Amino acid sequence: MEDAPVVLLFQRDLRVGDNPALTAAVESGAPVIPLFVLDDEAGAWAPGAASRWWLHHSLAALRVQLDALGVPLILRRGELAATLLDVTRAVAAKAVFWNRRHEPAAAARERTCEAELLRRGVRVEGFNATLLFEPARVRTREGHPFTVFTPFWRTCLALATDEAPLPAPRAIRAWDGALASLPLGALELEPAHDWAGEIAAAWTPGERGAHAQLERFLDERLPGYAAGRDRPDLDATSRLSPHLGFGEISARALRHASLAGAARAPRDTEAFLRQLGWREFSYHLLAHHPDLPDHPLRPEFARLPWRDDALAMGTWRRGKTGYPIVDAGMRQLWRTGWMHNRVRMIAASFLVKDLLLPWQAGERWFWETLVDADLANNSASWQWVAGCGADAAPYFRVFNPVLQGRRFDPDGSYVRRWIPELARLPDEAVHHPWSASETTLREAGVRLGVTYPTRIVDHAEARARALAAYAQIRDGRGAPKR
DNA sequence: TGAAATGTTGGGGCG
DNA sequence: ACGCCCCAACATTTC
Predict the structure, then answer these.
(1) Which of A312, A361, A368, A360 is nearest to A339 (CA)?
(2) Which of A150, A232, A345, A373 is most buried by its number of CB atoms within 10 A?
(3) End-to-end CA distance of chain A
(4) Are A276 and A132 in contact (CB under 8 A)?
(5) Per DSSP, which regions of A42-87 are E strands?
(6) pLDDT over threshold 60, residue A476
(7) Is A48 within 8 Å of A191 (Cβ atoms)?
(8) Domain endpoint, select from A232, A256, A288
(9) Does the nearest atom of strand B lie within 7 Å of A398's Cβ?
(10) Based on the structure, what is the number of domains in chain A?
(11) Residue ranges making up the domain that contains A91
(12) Residues A384 and A427 in one domain
């Protein structure tokens, strides 16, 4: 029994570098069996279509890396606890190592697994590989969870260290028994139709792709990041979010790498770390408010008179609202599985405020279509936009899609890229084609209502409607003011 | 990590 | 020369 193996359960940590559970498993001296379990019964927030596409390719990449280290990746499909019990029994494993997940449902599932495994005499060792600051670690002076970002992040920064990431193991001791694995295709993660064609061209899932992207970011984009990150026309963001989401690279490695250049570009480094901070804050909120994905943190928002308009919802999803910056974003999302963050805010504000459709509907669409869909980030951000979150934008803060477009896509190149039918409009008309003259439209080959939709709502009217809806709930009485 | 409405000020045109 | 008005430009308040 001396040579009983240990199982290494991969979750959202699909990497061999800076992987604490993997390092501990290797250092235990026992043979290591790497295992990934696809749990189709993982509940309402099981990965969406875009995430499943990414997961497929990330697992393929992980398998290649593990093969090079001398161990095969075992793939299974089924309920997590039952599968772990099956596997540990079949190989007589003495321990299971994993990096913890922090989503409440996933964490609860892990606790069940741990109890069941312990009951059968299998040791469990859990690690943190996902967050810089686990939710329980950061507290106000009163000992409460934070509800406001700025003091939260200040407290984190006071705790912060700059730990170097763990090196990848040079080799992993293989188990010499036989253990069946499903072929990757049997997980059925890839979409049936060719929806992913353009997504595939835009990304390289896997740990190597993640590090290549990080190097590009540090060299080319970190200088100027603070100012450029809001410009969807510039390709000035890190584009690391899906890699980070699947744990192909760790937040710790990102912090360490960006701090190495902090002296050269302190403001830009700080701005980048701050984005990691928002992710930490989202996990903090989710951990302390498990129903964050489904229910507004400010309960009165459940009484807001949201509309039920499937037609408008479809128009938004397909990028046919008639507001170019919104439509460009929604089309970028559908075609590449990603949308620039500034445009996410604009498109989200438009759904919630201009269309008065429930934020959960937008949250669900993003969940299905984003390759970087992350339960904490997605739900916290939608609540922020809707104004019902802990540290949310006030509800009356309504983005004007024309002004936002002009400010952040000044020559309209982002709009032109994703809405080619508007490409020939002059700069001053590209963000509001409805106010262009007949001549201008004709010369640009634009026929409103034919080649490009007429706008679904008038923003000024929609804004007034949203403010009126908000007024109904703000005093807690349900009666309109005045 | 807004925008619109409203208020204030000061320069210049003009009778 | 003077007062009046207009209206940018900027500041403040409100949604």
Answers:
(1) A368
(2) A232
(3) 79
(4) yes
(5) 74-77
(6) no
(7) no
(8) A288
(9) yes
(10) 3
(11) 6-130
(12) yes
